[in-house]
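Lab channel / #folding
Pinned by the channel admin:
"Please post every new chain as: sequence first, then the structure tokens as a reply. Keep commentary short and put observations after the output so the thread stays searchable."

First post following the new format, from NK:
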Amino acid sequence: MTLEEIINYRRSVRHYKETPIDSERVKHCLELASLSPNSSNMQLWEFYHIKDPEILKRLSVACLNQQSARTANQMVVFVTRQDLYKKRAKKMIELESQNVLKNSPKEKQDKRVKTWKLYYGNIIPILYSRFLGILGLLRKVLVSIVGLFRPITYQVSENDVRVVVHKTCALAAQTFMLAMANEGYDTCPMEGLDSKRVKKILKLPMGAEINMIISCGVREERGVWGDRMRVPFDEVYKRI
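Reply from TO:
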């Protein structure tokens, strides 16, 4: 399919056939999802691909017994891992340093490597660290002062950064759903769920958060609720 055909084909499916789907193709769609854009290339996400029938049943209950969950052939749980920021930042220093050595003029390499080490070694840890909201408040005060003299990003509270992590994880989820549509498979993103139960089922650490769960399968004819509805495009499109 063309991209336009993929986008038009994808629908949120509420009821799936019992037809099994190829888990390797689902895995490949997740590999494509990992190529999604994300803030500072930190990739603070994990994808839990669920095939086990017993776990699927337990997740269905945690998803409030939605039809999309009850009839799913497989599920993918998209998880944010802001708690892994130090590990990811260290990896990015290594990556960007190698990029500089491969692609930058020799006379500029030292400066550029220092810039990346400053960004991922100092700025990112300051931005992503959390402690009862206090660190975020201190960051807000600091950027408010700096903002008096030059443009600066004001979304630096602990909740602001948490939102960024969830936004980038959602980009991966969207890429996954489009990739699945290209395979002729169907999906439904679910946010109505008991996140505490899901974390317990998957044995996730305290720092992990559930972004969304995506059910997967092949749509029943009744699995799509009627025609697609969108508000008039003129209401949302603003040309400046």
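NK: Strands lie at 45-50, 74-80, 186-190, 209-217.
TO: also worth noting, The longest helix spans residues 158-182.
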